[in-house]
Amino acid sequence: MATTRIDLDGRPVKPITICMIGAGGFIGSHLCEKLMSETPHRVLALDVYNDKIKHLLEPESLPWATRIQFHRLNIKHDSRLEGLIKMADLTINLAAICTPADYNTRPLDTIYSNFIDALPVVKYCSENNRRLIHFSTCEVYGKTIQSFLPKDSPLRQDPAYYVLKEDTSPCIFGSIEKQRWSYACAKQLIERLIYAEGAENGLEFTIVRPFNWIGPRMDFIPGIDGPSEGVPRVLACFSNNLLRREPLKLVDGGKSQRTFVYIKDAIEAVLLMIENPDRANGHIFNVGNPNNEVTVRQLAEMMTKVYTKVSGEPYLESPTIDVSSKEFYGEGYDDSDKRIPDMTIINKQLGWNPKTSLWDLLESTLTYQHRTYAEAIKKAMVKPTAS
Ligand SMILES: NC(=O)c1ccc[n+]([C@@H]2O[C@H](COP(=O)([O-])OP(=O)(O)OC[C@H]3O[C@@H](n4cnc5c(N)ncnc54)[C@H](O)[C@@H]3O)[C@@H](O)[C@H]2O)c1
Ligand SMILES: O=c1ccn([C@@H]2O[C@H](COP(=O)(O)OP(=O)(O)O[C@H]3OC[C@@H](O)[C@H](O)[C@H]3O)[C@@H](O)[C@H]2O)c(=O)[nH]1
Protein backbone atom coordinates (compact mmCIF):
# COMPACT_ATOMS: atom_id res chain seq x y z
CA MET A 1 0.00 0.00 0.00
CA ALA A 2 1.29 3.47 -0.90
CA THR A 3 1.68 5.45 2.34
CA THR A 4 1.43 8.90 0.79
CA ARG A 5 -1.08 9.35 -1.95
CA ILE A 6 -0.98 12.41 -4.19
CA ASP A 7 -4.04 14.16 -5.59
CA LEU A 8 -4.44 15.41 -9.16
CA ASP A 9 -2.94 18.78 -8.18
CA GLY A 10 0.19 17.24 -6.68
CA ARG A 11 -0.84 17.64 -3.03
CA PRO A 12 -0.59 14.81 -0.49
CA VAL A 13 -3.96 13.18 0.31
CA LYS A 14 -4.76 13.05 4.03
CA PRO A 15 -6.24 9.75 5.28
CA ILE A 16 -9.98 10.20 5.89
CA THR A 17 -12.89 8.28 7.42
CA ILE A 18 -15.67 7.32 5.02
CA CYS A 19 -19.18 6.36 6.07
CA MET A 20 -20.25 4.01 3.26
CA ILE A 21 -23.96 3.19 3.21
CA GLY A 22 -24.79 0.10 1.13
CA ALA A 23 -21.16 -1.07 1.47
CA GLY A 24 -22.25 -4.72 1.33
CA GLY A 25 -23.58 -4.49 -2.23
CA PHE A 26 -21.93 -4.97 -5.62
CA ILE A 27 -20.36 -1.51 -6.00
CA GLY A 28 -19.73 -1.15 -2.25
CA SER A 29 -17.78 -4.41 -2.09
CA HIS A 30 -15.44 -3.31 -4.89
CA LEU A 31 -15.01 0.15 -3.42
CA CYS A 32 -14.19 -1.28 0.03
CA GLU A 33 -11.69 -3.67 -1.58
CA LYS A 34 -9.96 -0.81 -3.41
CA LEU A 35 -9.88 1.46 -0.34
CA MET A 36 -8.44 -1.30 1.85
CA SER A 37 -5.81 -2.59 -0.58
CA GLU A 38 -4.57 0.69 -2.08
CA THR A 39 -5.27 3.57 0.31
CA PRO A 40 -4.88 4.45 3.99
CA HIS A 41 -8.52 5.57 4.36
CA ARG A 42 -10.87 4.17 7.01
CA VAL A 43 -14.33 2.82 6.23
CA LEU A 44 -17.43 2.59 8.40
CA ALA A 45 -19.31 0.04 6.29
CA LEU A 46 -23.10 0.15 6.77
CA ASP A 47 -25.50 -2.39 5.28
CA VAL A 48 -28.13 -4.96 6.13
CA TYR A 49 -25.88 -7.68 4.62
CA ASN A 50 -22.14 -8.27 4.59
CA ASP A 51 -21.67 -11.50 2.58
CA LYS A 52 -19.94 -9.67 -0.30
CA ILE A 53 -17.39 -8.01 2.02
CA LYS A 54 -16.82 -10.92 4.45
CA HIS A 55 -13.38 -11.48 2.87
CA LEU A 56 -12.41 -7.94 3.94
CA LEU A 57 -13.75 -8.24 7.49
CA GLU A 58 -12.29 -11.62 8.53
CA PRO A 59 -9.86 -12.81 9.80
CA GLU A 60 -8.76 -10.07 12.17
CA SER A 61 -5.17 -10.59 11.03
CA LEU A 62 -5.90 -8.86 7.69
CA PRO A 63 -3.54 -5.90 7.21
CA TRP A 64 -6.45 -3.41 7.08
CA ALA A 65 -8.42 -4.91 9.99
CA THR A 66 -8.27 -1.68 12.02
CA ARG A 67 -9.45 0.43 9.06
CA ILE A 68 -12.79 -1.23 8.31
CA GLN A 69 -15.72 -1.60 10.66
CA PHE A 70 -19.03 -3.20 9.71
CA HIS A 71 -22.29 -1.85 11.16
CA ARG A 72 -25.33 -3.99 10.39
CA LEU A 73 -28.17 -1.51 10.10
CA ASN A 74 -31.17 -0.54 8.03
CA ILE A 75 -31.11 3.19 7.33
CA LYS A 76 -34.94 3.25 7.30
CA HIS A 77 -35.02 3.10 11.06
CA ASP A 78 -31.77 3.25 12.97
CA SER A 79 -30.83 6.02 15.36
CA ARG A 80 -27.12 5.25 14.91
CA LEU A 81 -27.11 6.74 11.40
CA GLU A 82 -26.49 10.40 12.31
CA GLY A 83 -23.70 9.50 14.75
CA LEU A 84 -21.92 7.43 12.11
CA ILE A 85 -22.21 10.21 9.51
CA LYS A 86 -20.80 12.67 12.07
CA MET A 87 -17.85 10.36 12.80
CA ALA A 88 -16.85 10.46 9.10
CA ASP A 89 -15.34 13.15 6.85
CA LEU A 90 -17.27 11.86 3.84
CA THR A 91 -20.47 9.86 3.37
CA ILE A 92 -21.00 7.72 0.28
CA ASN A 93 -24.60 6.61 -0.20
CA LEU A 94 -25.06 3.48 -2.32
CA ALA A 95 -28.14 2.06 -0.59
CA ALA A 96 -31.05 1.50 -2.95
CA ILE A 97 -33.46 -0.92 -4.53
CA CYS A 98 -31.95 -0.91 -8.03
CA THR A 99 -33.13 -3.97 -9.99
CA PRO A 100 -35.64 -3.22 -12.80
CA ALA A 101 -37.78 -6.26 -11.87
CA ASP A 102 -38.72 -4.35 -8.69
CA TYR A 103 -39.57 -0.96 -10.22
CA ASN A 104 -42.97 -1.93 -11.64
CA THR A 105 -43.80 -4.72 -9.17
CA ARG A 106 -42.72 -2.97 -5.93
CA PRO A 107 -43.03 0.71 -6.89
CA LEU A 108 -43.70 1.90 -3.33
CA ASP A 109 -40.61 0.15 -1.91
CA THR A 110 -38.65 1.50 -4.88
CA ILE A 111 -39.73 5.11 -4.31
CA TYR A 112 -39.22 4.90 -0.54
CA SER A 113 -35.80 3.33 -0.93
CA ASN A 114 -34.50 5.76 -3.55
CA PHE A 115 -36.03 8.97 -2.22
CA ILE A 116 -37.52 8.87 1.31
CA ASP A 117 -34.77 6.70 2.84
CA ALA A 118 -32.06 8.88 1.33
CA LEU A 119 -33.54 12.08 2.84
CA PRO A 120 -32.06 11.72 6.36
CA VAL A 121 -28.65 10.97 4.84
CA VAL A 122 -28.72 14.25 2.89
CA LYS A 123 -30.08 16.15 5.90
CA TYR A 124 -27.44 14.82 8.33
CA CYS A 125 -24.64 15.62 5.87
CA SER A 126 -25.98 19.13 5.30
CA GLU A 127 -26.62 19.91 9.00
CA ASN A 128 -23.26 18.56 10.13
CA ASN A 129 -21.22 20.01 7.24
CA ARG A 130 -20.15 16.62 5.95
CA ARG A 131 -19.32 15.93 2.33
CA LEU A 132 -21.65 13.59 0.41
CA ILE A 133 -21.07 11.42 -2.66
CA HIS A 134 -24.51 10.19 -3.70
CA PHE A 135 -25.12 7.37 -6.17
CA SER A 136 -27.84 8.24 -8.65
CA THR A 137 -28.24 6.51 -12.04
CA CYS A 138 -28.05 6.92 -15.80
CA GLU A 139 -31.77 6.07 -15.74
CA VAL A 140 -32.49 9.70 -14.77
CA TYR A 141 -32.05 10.49 -18.49
CA GLY A 142 -34.84 8.03 -19.31
CA LYS A 143 -35.42 7.76 -23.05
CA THR A 144 -33.40 9.56 -25.71
CA ILE A 145 -34.80 12.36 -27.90
CA GLN A 146 -33.79 10.13 -30.82
CA SER A 147 -36.41 7.54 -29.85
CA PHE A 148 -39.19 10.05 -30.60
CA LEU A 149 -37.88 10.99 -34.07
CA PRO A 150 -39.42 9.38 -37.17
CA LYS A 151 -37.62 6.13 -38.07
CA ASP A 152 -36.36 7.61 -41.35
CA SER A 153 -35.24 10.96 -39.90
CA PRO A 154 -31.59 11.79 -40.75
CA LEU A 155 -31.41 13.52 -37.33
CA ARG A 156 -31.27 10.03 -35.78
CA GLN A 157 -27.60 9.89 -36.82
CA ASP A 158 -26.81 13.11 -34.95
CA PRO A 159 -25.26 12.44 -31.50
CA ALA A 160 -26.95 15.61 -30.22
CA TYR A 161 -30.17 13.53 -30.14
CA TYR A 162 -28.84 10.55 -28.21
CA VAL A 163 -25.57 11.20 -26.32
CA LEU A 164 -26.45 11.89 -22.67
CA LYS A 165 -24.90 15.03 -21.15
CA GLU A 166 -25.12 15.89 -17.46
CA ASP A 167 -25.77 19.61 -17.93
CA THR A 168 -27.94 19.73 -21.05
CA SER A 169 -29.87 16.49 -21.69
CA PRO A 170 -33.49 16.41 -20.56
CA CYS A 171 -34.94 13.65 -18.34
CA ILE A 172 -37.63 11.88 -20.40
CA PHE A 173 -39.81 9.31 -18.65
CA GLY A 174 -42.94 7.39 -19.67
CA SER A 175 -46.45 7.88 -18.35
CA ILE A 176 -47.33 7.25 -14.67
CA GLU A 177 -48.81 3.81 -15.34
CA LYS A 178 -45.43 2.80 -16.73
CA GLN A 179 -44.18 2.18 -13.20
CA ARG A 180 -40.75 1.28 -14.53
CA TRP A 181 -39.95 4.98 -14.10
CA SER A 182 -40.67 5.02 -10.35
CA TYR A 183 -36.95 4.41 -9.75
CA ALA A 184 -35.65 7.02 -12.19
CA CYS A 185 -38.11 9.61 -10.94
CA ALA A 186 -37.21 9.01 -7.26
CA LYS A 187 -33.51 9.24 -8.15
CA GLN A 188 -34.13 12.45 -10.08
CA LEU A 189 -35.91 14.06 -7.15
CA ILE A 190 -33.16 13.16 -4.68
CA GLU A 191 -30.62 14.60 -7.13
CA ARG A 192 -32.63 17.84 -7.24
CA LEU A 193 -32.83 17.92 -3.45
CA ILE A 194 -29.07 17.41 -3.07
CA TYR A 195 -28.40 20.06 -5.69
CA ALA A 196 -30.71 22.47 -3.85
CA GLU A 197 -28.97 21.71 -0.51
CA GLY A 198 -25.74 22.64 -2.24
CA ALA A 199 -27.17 25.85 -3.68
CA GLU A 200 -29.09 27.04 -0.60
CA ASN A 201 -27.20 25.55 2.35
CA GLY A 202 -23.69 24.99 0.99
CA LEU A 203 -23.73 21.15 1.10
CA GLU A 204 -20.55 19.79 -0.47
CA PHE A 205 -21.82 17.07 -2.78
CA THR A 206 -20.95 14.93 -5.79
CA ILE A 207 -23.58 12.98 -7.72
CA VAL A 208 -22.56 9.83 -9.61
CA ARG A 209 -24.61 8.52 -12.53
CA PRO A 210 -23.38 4.97 -13.21
CA PHE A 211 -23.96 3.60 -16.72
CA ASN A 212 -24.32 -0.21 -16.34
CA TRP A 213 -21.27 -1.08 -14.25
CA ILE A 214 -20.75 -4.83 -14.38
CA GLY A 215 -18.36 -7.42 -12.98
CA PRO A 216 -17.95 -10.12 -10.34
CA ARG A 217 -20.34 -10.13 -7.33
CA MET A 218 -23.10 -8.35 -9.25
CA ASP A 219 -26.52 -9.31 -7.84
CA PHE A 220 -27.14 -13.04 -7.35
CA ILE A 221 -27.71 -16.32 -9.13
CA PRO A 222 -31.34 -17.35 -8.60
CA GLY A 223 -31.67 -20.48 -6.46
CA ILE A 224 -27.98 -20.41 -5.46
CA ASP A 225 -27.29 -17.23 -3.53
CA GLY A 226 -30.64 -15.52 -4.06
CA PRO A 227 -34.32 -16.44 -4.37
CA SER A 228 -35.16 -18.98 -7.13
CA GLU A 229 -37.91 -16.73 -8.48
CA GLY A 230 -35.78 -13.54 -8.22
CA VAL A 231 -34.90 -11.55 -11.36
CA PRO A 232 -31.50 -9.85 -11.11
CA ARG A 233 -29.97 -7.41 -13.64
CA VAL A 234 -29.05 -8.64 -17.10
CA LEU A 235 -25.48 -9.79 -16.36
CA ALA A 236 -26.68 -12.17 -13.63
CA CYS A 237 -29.77 -13.26 -15.65
CA PHE A 238 -27.61 -14.24 -18.63
CA SER A 239 -24.92 -15.81 -16.39
CA ASN A 240 -27.62 -17.92 -14.75
CA ASN A 241 -28.91 -19.07 -18.17
CA LEU A 242 -25.39 -19.94 -19.32
CA LEU A 243 -24.55 -21.82 -16.13
CA ARG A 244 -27.77 -23.85 -16.46
CA ARG A 245 -27.28 -24.32 -20.21
CA GLU A 246 -30.66 -22.81 -21.02
CA PRO A 247 -31.42 -20.16 -23.68
CA LEU A 248 -30.82 -16.52 -22.77
CA LYS A 249 -34.12 -14.63 -22.65
CA LEU A 250 -34.30 -11.54 -24.87
CA VAL A 251 -36.90 -9.09 -23.61
CA ASP A 252 -38.89 -7.57 -26.50
CA GLY A 253 -36.34 -8.83 -29.01
CA GLY A 254 -33.23 -7.54 -27.17
CA LYS A 255 -33.13 -4.40 -29.27
CA SER A 256 -32.40 -1.94 -26.44
CA GLN A 257 -28.87 -0.62 -26.38
CA ARG A 258 -26.53 -0.28 -23.41
CA THR A 259 -22.93 0.69 -22.80
CA PHE A 260 -21.23 -1.50 -20.19
CA VAL A 261 -18.24 -0.47 -18.10
CA TYR A 262 -16.00 -2.76 -16.06
CA ILE A 263 -16.53 -2.27 -12.33
CA LYS A 264 -12.77 -1.98 -11.73
CA ASP A 265 -12.49 0.94 -14.21
CA ALA A 266 -15.50 2.67 -12.64
CA ILE A 267 -14.10 2.28 -9.11
CA GLU A 268 -10.99 4.22 -10.25
CA ALA A 269 -13.32 7.13 -11.06
CA VAL A 270 -14.93 7.00 -7.62
CA LEU A 271 -11.52 6.98 -5.94
CA LEU A 272 -10.58 10.11 -7.90
CA MET A 273 -13.76 11.79 -6.63
CA ILE A 274 -12.96 10.76 -3.04
CA GLU A 275 -9.39 12.06 -3.18
CA ASN A 276 -10.01 15.24 -5.21
CA PRO A 277 -12.89 17.02 -3.45
CA ASP A 278 -12.04 20.42 -4.95
CA ARG A 279 -12.47 18.98 -8.43
CA ALA A 280 -15.48 16.79 -7.63
CA ASN A 281 -17.67 18.92 -5.35
CA GLY A 282 -20.74 20.47 -6.93
CA HIS A 283 -20.54 18.17 -9.95
CA ILE A 284 -22.72 15.47 -11.45
CA PHE A 285 -20.64 12.82 -13.22
CA ASN A 286 -21.59 10.28 -15.87
CA VAL A 287 -19.45 7.20 -15.28
CA GLY A 288 -19.58 4.73 -18.15
CA ASN A 289 -17.80 3.46 -21.23
CA PRO A 290 -19.14 5.02 -24.47
CA ASN A 291 -17.02 2.61 -26.54
CA ASN A 292 -18.69 -0.53 -25.18
CA GLU A 293 -22.12 -0.14 -26.79
CA VAL A 294 -24.15 -3.23 -27.79
CA THR A 295 -27.79 -4.21 -28.18
CA VAL A 296 -28.96 -6.67 -25.55
CA ARG A 297 -29.07 -9.29 -28.32
CA GLN A 298 -25.41 -8.64 -29.13
CA LEU A 299 -24.58 -8.86 -25.42
CA ALA A 300 -26.27 -12.28 -25.27
CA GLU A 301 -24.31 -13.48 -28.29
CA MET A 302 -21.02 -12.20 -26.92
CA MET A 303 -21.62 -13.68 -23.46
CA THR A 304 -22.45 -17.04 -25.03
CA LYS A 305 -19.16 -17.02 -26.99
CA VAL A 306 -17.08 -15.89 -24.02
CA TYR A 307 -18.70 -18.43 -21.71
CA THR A 308 -18.00 -21.25 -24.15
CA LYS A 309 -14.35 -20.18 -24.15
CA VAL A 310 -13.88 -19.86 -20.38
CA SER A 311 -15.96 -22.89 -19.33
CA GLY A 312 -14.81 -25.31 -22.05
CA GLU A 313 -18.46 -26.37 -22.46
CA PRO A 314 -19.95 -26.85 -25.94
CA TYR A 315 -21.78 -23.95 -27.62
CA LEU A 316 -25.53 -23.86 -26.90
CA GLU A 317 -27.63 -25.05 -29.85
CA SER A 318 -30.35 -22.42 -29.39
CA PRO A 319 -28.60 -19.69 -27.45
CA THR A 320 -31.48 -17.20 -27.20
CA ILE A 321 -35.25 -17.08 -26.92
CA ASP A 322 -37.57 -14.07 -27.26
CA VAL A 323 -39.91 -13.13 -24.40
CA SER A 324 -42.29 -10.20 -24.06
CA SER A 325 -41.57 -7.63 -21.37
CA LYS A 326 -45.03 -8.27 -19.90
CA GLU A 327 -44.23 -11.96 -19.50
CA PHE A 328 -40.74 -11.27 -18.11
CA TYR A 329 -41.27 -8.20 -15.90
CA GLY A 330 -45.06 -7.84 -15.70
CA GLU A 331 -47.40 -4.91 -16.27
CA GLY A 332 -45.92 -1.41 -16.26
CA TYR A 333 -42.46 -2.23 -17.62
CA ASP A 334 -40.87 0.18 -20.06
CA ASP A 335 -37.27 0.55 -21.23
CA SER A 336 -34.46 3.00 -21.88
CA ASP A 337 -33.71 2.72 -25.60
CA LYS A 338 -30.05 3.77 -25.66
CA ARG A 339 -27.47 5.01 -23.15
CA ILE A 340 -24.26 6.61 -24.33
CA PRO A 341 -22.57 8.76 -21.68
CA ASP A 342 -20.92 12.02 -22.60
CA MET A 343 -17.50 11.98 -20.91
CA THR A 344 -16.57 15.67 -21.20
CA ILE A 345 -17.14 16.66 -17.57
CA ILE A 346 -15.45 13.70 -15.88
CA ASN A 347 -12.58 14.00 -18.34
CA LYS A 348 -12.07 17.67 -17.65
CA GLN A 349 -12.47 17.50 -13.87
CA LEU A 350 -10.80 14.17 -13.07
CA GLY A 351 -8.98 13.11 -16.24
CA TRP A 352 -10.73 9.73 -16.02
CA ASN A 353 -11.23 7.37 -18.95
CA PRO A 354 -12.47 3.76 -18.98
CA LYS A 355 -9.94 1.19 -20.25
CA THR A 356 -11.47 -2.27 -20.51
CA SER A 357 -13.19 -3.56 -23.65
CA LEU A 358 -16.49 -5.40 -23.40
CA TRP A 359 -14.91 -8.69 -24.50
CA ASP A 360 -12.16 -8.45 -21.85
CA LEU A 361 -14.49 -7.50 -19.03
CA LEU A 362 -16.86 -10.33 -19.92
CA GLU A 363 -13.96 -12.76 -20.02
CA SER A 364 -12.83 -11.93 -16.48
CA THR A 365 -16.40 -11.70 -15.16
CA LEU A 366 -17.59 -14.98 -16.69
CA THR A 367 -14.42 -16.73 -15.51
CA TYR A 368 -15.42 -15.61 -12.01
CA GLN A 369 -19.05 -16.71 -12.50
CA HIS A 370 -17.97 -20.14 -13.74
CA ARG A 371 -15.45 -20.63 -10.91
CA THR A 372 -17.91 -19.44 -8.26
CA TYR A 373 -21.14 -21.08 -9.35
CA ALA A 374 -20.68 -23.97 -11.82
CA GLU A 375 -20.36 -26.70 -9.15
CA ALA A 376 -23.24 -25.36 -7.04
CA ILE A 377 -25.49 -25.20 -10.11
CA LYS A 378 -24.60 -28.77 -11.11
CA LYS A 379 -25.46 -30.01 -7.61
CA ALA A 380 -28.71 -28.02 -7.52
CA MET A 381 -29.74 -29.36 -10.94
CA VAL A 382 -29.29 -33.05 -10.06
CA LYS A 383 -31.13 -32.76 -6.72
CA PRO A 384 -34.49 -34.56 -6.97
CA THR A 385 -37.33 -32.06 -6.54
CA ALA A 386 -39.45 -32.61 -3.43
CA SER A 387 -42.81 -34.14 -4.31
N1 LIG B 1 -24.51 -1.27 -10.75
C1 LIG B 1 -24.87 -0.34 -11.61
O1 LIG B 1 -24.57 -0.43 -12.79
C2 LIG B 1 -25.65 0.86 -11.18
C3 LIG B 1 -26.18 1.65 -12.21
C4 LIG B 1 -26.86 2.81 -11.88
C5 LIG B 1 -27.01 3.16 -10.54
N2 LIG B 1 -26.48 2.38 -9.56
C6 LIG B 1 -26.66 2.84 -8.17
O2 LIG B 1 -25.51 2.54 -7.40
C7 LIG B 1 -25.88 2.16 -6.09
C8 LIG B 1 -25.28 0.81 -5.73
O3 LIG B 1 -25.67 -0.14 -6.69
P1 LIG B 1 -25.23 -1.68 -6.65
O4 LIG B 1 -25.19 -2.14 -8.05
O5 LIG B 1 -24.02 -1.85 -5.80
O6 LIG B 1 -26.52 -2.33 -5.95
P2 LIG B 1 -26.61 -3.42 -4.78
O7 LIG B 1 -28.05 -3.80 -4.66
O8 LIG B 1 -25.63 -4.50 -5.02
O9 LIG B 1 -26.15 -2.61 -3.49
C9 LIG B 1 -27.00 -1.82 -2.72
C10 LIG B 1 -26.74 -2.17 -1.25
O10 LIG B 1 -27.54 -1.28 -0.43
C11 LIG B 1 -28.02 -2.01 0.65
N3 LIG B 1 -29.22 -1.36 1.17
C12 LIG B 1 -30.38 -1.13 0.48
N4 LIG B 1 -31.27 -0.55 1.29
C13 LIG B 1 -30.68 -0.41 2.50
C14 LIG B 1 -31.11 0.12 3.73
N5 LIG B 1 -32.36 0.59 3.90
N6 LIG B 1 -30.25 0.14 4.78
C15 LIG B 1 -29.00 -0.37 4.62
N7 LIG B 1 -28.53 -0.89 3.47
C16 LIG B 1 -29.37 -0.91 2.41
C17 LIG B 1 -28.33 -3.40 0.08
O11 LIG B 1 -28.39 -4.39 1.11
C18 LIG B 1 -27.17 -3.59 -0.89
O12 LIG B 1 -26.10 -4.29 -0.27
C19 LIG B 1 -27.41 2.21 -6.05
O13 LIG B 1 -27.81 3.46 -5.53
C20 LIG B 1 -27.82 2.13 -7.50
O14 LIG B 1 -29.05 2.76 -7.75
C21 LIG B 1 -25.82 1.23 -9.86
O1 LIG C 1 -32.80 -11.75 -18.85
C1 LIG C 1 -32.84 -10.58 -19.24
C2 LIG C 1 -32.63 -9.45 -18.40
C3 LIG C 1 -32.66 -8.18 -18.94
N1 LIG C 1 -32.89 -7.97 -20.27
C4 LIG C 1 -32.83 -6.61 -20.86
O2 LIG C 1 -31.49 -6.15 -20.71
C5 LIG C 1 -31.47 -4.72 -20.57
C6 LIG C 1 -30.65 -4.34 -19.36
O3 LIG C 1 -31.28 -4.77 -18.20
P1 LIG C 1 -30.69 -4.58 -16.72
O4 LIG C 1 -31.42 -5.55 -15.85
O5 LIG C 1 -29.24 -4.66 -16.69
O6 LIG C 1 -31.17 -3.12 -16.31
P2 LIG C 1 -31.21 -1.72 -17.04
O7 LIG C 1 -29.96 -1.45 -17.81
O8 LIG C 1 -32.47 -1.62 -17.81
O9 LIG C 1 -31.34 -0.78 -15.78
C7 LIG C 1 -30.27 -0.65 -14.84
O10 LIG C 1 -29.66 0.53 -15.21
C8 LIG C 1 -28.97 1.32 -14.33
C9 LIG C 1 -29.23 1.11 -12.86
O11 LIG C 1 -29.77 2.24 -12.25
C10 LIG C 1 -29.92 -0.10 -12.44
O12 LIG C 1 -28.95 -1.01 -12.04
C11 LIG C 1 -30.86 -0.65 -13.45
O13 LIG C 1 -32.01 0.16 -13.39
C12 LIG C 1 -32.95 -4.29 -20.56
O14 LIG C 1 -33.31 -3.89 -21.85
C13 LIG C 1 -33.70 -5.56 -20.19
O15 LIG C 1 -35.03 -5.59 -20.69
C14 LIG C 1 -33.09 -9.08 -21.10
O16 LIG C 1 -33.33 -8.92 -22.32
N2 LIG C 1 -33.07 -10.34 -20.56
TrEMBL record:
It holds the Pfam family Epimerase. Keywords: NAD. The keyword NAD applies. The keyword Transmembrane does not apply. InterPro entries: Arna-like_SDR_e (IPR045869), Epimerase_deHydtase (IPR001509), Lipid_A_modif_metabolic_enz (IPR050177), NAD(P)-bd_dom_sf (IPR036291). Residues 18-288 form the NAD-dependent epimerase/dehydratase domain. PANTHER family: BIFUNCTIONAL POLYMYXIN RESISTANCE PROTEIN ARNA, UDP-D-APIOSE_UDP-D-XYLOSE SYNTHASE 2. This is NAD-dependent epimerase/dehydratase domain-containing protein. It comes from Hibiscus sabdariffa.
